[in-house]
Amino acid sequence: MAVDYRPTVFLPQTDFPMKAELPKREPGLLERWARTGLYERIRAKSKGREKFVLHDGPPYANGNLHMGHALNKILKDIVVRSQQMLGKDSVYVPGWDCHGLPIEWKIEEKYRAAKQNKDDVPIDQFRRECRAFAEHWVDVQRTEFKRLGVMGDWDNPYLTMAYAAEAQIVREIGKFLMNGGLFQGAKPVLWSVVEQTALAEAEVEYQDHTSRTIHVRFKVVTPSVPALAGASVVIWTTTPWTMPGNRAVAYGADFDYAVVRVDAVADGSKAGVGETLVLGAALVEPVAKEVGITGWTVLATLPGSELAGTLTAHPLRGQGYDFDVPLLPGGFVTTDAGTGFVHIAPGHGEDDFLLSQAHGIGVTETVAADGSYVDRVPLFAGKRVYTPYGKPGDANPAVIEALDAAGGLLAAGSLVHSYPHSWRSKAPLIFRTTPQWFISMETNDLRQVALQAISDTRWVPPQGENRIRSMIESRPDWCISRQRAWGVPIAIFVDKKTRQPLRDQRVVDRIAAAVEDEGADVWFTAPAARFLGNDYNPGDYEKVTDIVDVWFDSGSTHSFVLEQRPDLMWPASLYLEGSDQHRGWFHSSLLESCGTRGRAPYDAVLTHGFVLDEQGRKMSKSLGNITAPQDVIEGSGADILRLWVVASDYYEDLRIGKQILGYQVDVYRRLRNTLRYLLGALSGFSAEERIDPAKMPELERWVLHRLKELDIVMREATDAFDFHRMYVELHQFCSVDLSAFYFDIRKDALYCDRPDDPRRRAVRTVMDLVFDCLAKWLAPILCFTAEEAWLARHGSAPDTSVHLEVFPTLPDAWIAPDLAERWSRIRDLRRVVTGAIELERAAKRLGSSLQASVTLFVDSDEVLSGLDLAEICIVSEATLSLAPVPDGAFTMADVPGIAVTVGLAPGEKCQRCWRVLPEVTTVAAHPDLCHRCADAVDHHHA
């Protein structure tokens, strides 16, 4: 009867399950971390270490998390955890952006549905409803962020609507007030008719839009040169509705212009035979084609500079537009398109406004906040540019019809082009000149200070520096006022007579103190006298009721988070957001801090891309291609999402979908199985079993070399925030170096050697080191799985957690380049042997590789001397030969100098280790075992 030797074989034993079931296990670990106060334990253990502070860019508190949120917060968490594992005190305080239009819009919707006007609601009541809405979503998002495994001070986050935060924002506005950087000016700003407020550049996105186009005649009434007498200057515009605001026409002083007589026209053309038109000389032919002129004669050509002094008539002269329209030189005029002339409406464009200012032309308000023409606009009062819902109104058709009736319209058409839209309402915007509050880019040299700060900052990836630099170099003054209700007020007073802001630090301090006690609502509800004190007559001043741009809110977070919390520091070590924040949070934080403190509030900035679907398309409900983080967590677990983040090149746009996530599940399984195998192999391992590396076989010393190499890579990758490299290296190590090589070779020694055998002790010593390193290196990425494995190895005492550990410090002496080179050659040799055996197995001449006897024909045996090649190749017999390679030997083109022949190993099969050896049958007490196994069995029974 055959003996059952299975009880004598040291097979891996562990309770760490092969099946992860992450959706079930992860919540239990979250509960454990909360119960044991893990975050507080980490802080206590880290006290006195070098600080690393990633300052959280606040997400907006108005809905469930999407995949962009998940990417951002997971990446932040990996940064924070890896810096902590480097041995730093890496503190993370999450925060939320709570003010602003999207929340206000939601509350307005409720009133609109009830047929109520929100302006009829007391402002403090309206603001309370906004606050309650934000509080609800902060709680929802906090729970969802924690479920991602993001660790931080969730019990004490920062909120921009906290009273102390609002008070500090008031103080920051006060700093710009006191240093002269804040001023009120009437400038053209991008205006949302839907939201009825000015928008910052960061709140604008460009989308394709169909605009009405018109070519319009401006009849010359006072020519600068005789050739212009009786002619009409032709302009082209994509905004017909701005024509009532026209006050000038711009030309290029360095361009040539042609006076053209119309000789023939196409059917339906509005051009008249015999009329004379003035056009850019380079644009005569394309304009003629567009307006239906088929024949023409150039009567004169003159340089643009000779147009100076020419006056024209507004096309609607005689209908309330009875003023001259001068031709003015404009450096922004081009000959790329249009007519070579640009109509100037100083109320509706930045170039228009500046050119008009330079020539003493004032701004006439034509369009109100709701997108309708004001009452004093002749012909068009009450007509709308856009409806309250962002749809085209009746202004363009009315203007075009009036121009046509007056003889001013030369042609009308349409054009699809990139046009500014609100990134919230998605409605098109208009330029509108209104009184607004600005922070000057020139006062206090803010632009130059900011540019220097950009040079002093580390940008990851480096191209981020050029992007934000170009924005700062060309940006206009920062418009910080919004005509809304929910936010921090620009809490200043304006002198009714001089229209100058009151600059008194005592007043600023009184306002801030009141806001700190009662919240920003106090500005709207308390009398002015409370803030002005006894030094000023409230009747002489008016309160500014605009609120500050929410980008100023978030740009000020450094002042009430980094500077005021003792567990943090200023400046932050790192800001980390999507690449769109070069125009958003990075930008506003830079300007706010440079304007008040002379430098950026961060030492480094890391940017990541956007999340797309598997085909590279933007996710949208209409396409049905949204992958929600909640669905991935429910189906696969948060660690799969975390693995996806580092598996992607997050410096670029990332793709996600079922197929991509399925691949990450496979990768995760390999990593988990590596940890599981190590845990099983280390069952019962104790410190007494360890063996000194100097006494280890070469293969174990090669593994130690690889560990040290990885130690260097992990530290470099952490410092570079290059977690993709970390992922690639760890995956390669687990799947190629360990599973397919080291574990494969050493499972025989692990299972079958005596427990006290030096070789087996060396294997287990190395595996203990490998597990320790892998669990710690994986902990920032697979925070749940690494913890589960760590607890399986070290027990579940409250003070046990891999997240309380630091990256291992490995000896430099483990680096062995000569050994690495030798084992690289050995691995090549093993590949050739494996290839030869696979051919034999495919031909059914061989079953297990342990049935094989192989002969290796090599150029030199120097590299292979002193090795047990049978063990390395997992065969029962291996022989080296320097003889000529026989015909039919197996070779591989990429491994020169090695050939292999395969035959059946002589002897009998050991019933314990399954090697085929001549010595089997020679041990009297165990005739079915080899010498090693017989000794191990005797030792086991003993």
TrEMBL record:
UniProt domain Methionyl/Valyl/Leucyl/Isoleucyl-tRNA synthetase anticodon-binding: residue ranges: 700-855
Residue ranges of the motif 'KMSKS' region: 618-622
Organism the protein comes from: Aliidongia dinghuensis
Domain (Aminoacyl-tRNA synthetase class Ia) ranges: 29-656
Keyword hit for Membrane: no
Quaternary context: Monomer.
Catalytic activity, as annotated: tRNA(Ile) + L-isoleucine + ATP = L-isoleucyl-tRNA(Ile) + AMP + diphosphate
Domain notes: IleRS has two distinct active sites: one for aminoacylation and one for editing. The misactivated valine is translocated from the active site to the editing site, which sterically excludes the correctly activated isoleucine. The single editing site contains two valyl binding pockets, one specific for each substrate (Val-AMP or Val-tRNA(Ile)).
One MF term in the entry's GO annotations: isoleucine-tRNA ligase activity
GO biological process: isoleucyl-tRNA aminoacylation
SUPFAM superfamilies (alphabetical): Anticodon-binding domain of a subclass of class I aminoacyl-tRNA synthetases, Nucleotidylyl transferase, ValRS/IleRS/LeuRS editing domain
InterPro entries in the cross-refs: aa-tRNA-synth_I_CS, aa-tRNA-synth_Ia, Anticodon_Ile_BEm, Ile-tRNA-ligase, Ile-tRNA-ligase_type1, Ile-tRNA_ligase, M/V/L/I-tRNA-synth_anticd-bd, Rossmann-like_a/b/a_fold
Protein family (similarity comment): Belongs to the class-I aminoacyl-tRNA synthetase family. IleS type 1 subfamily.
Binding annotation for Zn(2+): C910, C913, C930, C933
Domain Zinc finger FPG/IleRS-type: 907-935
Role description: Catalyzes the attachment of isoleucine to tRNA(Ile). As IleRS can inadvertently accommodate and process structurally similar amino acids such as valine, to avoid such errors it has two additional distinct tRNA(Ile)-dependent editing activities. One activity is designated as 'pretransfer' editing and involves the hydrolysis of activated Val-AMP. The other activity is designated 'posttransfer' editing and involves deacylation of mischarged Val-tRNA(Ile).
Main localization of the protein described in the UniProt heading: cytoplasm
Record EC number: 6.1.1.5
Motif 'HIGH' region mapped to chain: 59-69
Broadest EC class assigned to this enzyme: ligase
Binding locations of L-isoleucyl-5'-AMP: E577
Name this polypeptide is given: Isoleucine--tRNA ligase
Residue sites binding ATP per the record: K621
Cofactor note: Binds 1 zinc ion per subunit.
Required co-factors: Zn(2+)
Cited Pfam families: Anticodon_1, tRNA-synt_1, zf-FPG_IleRS
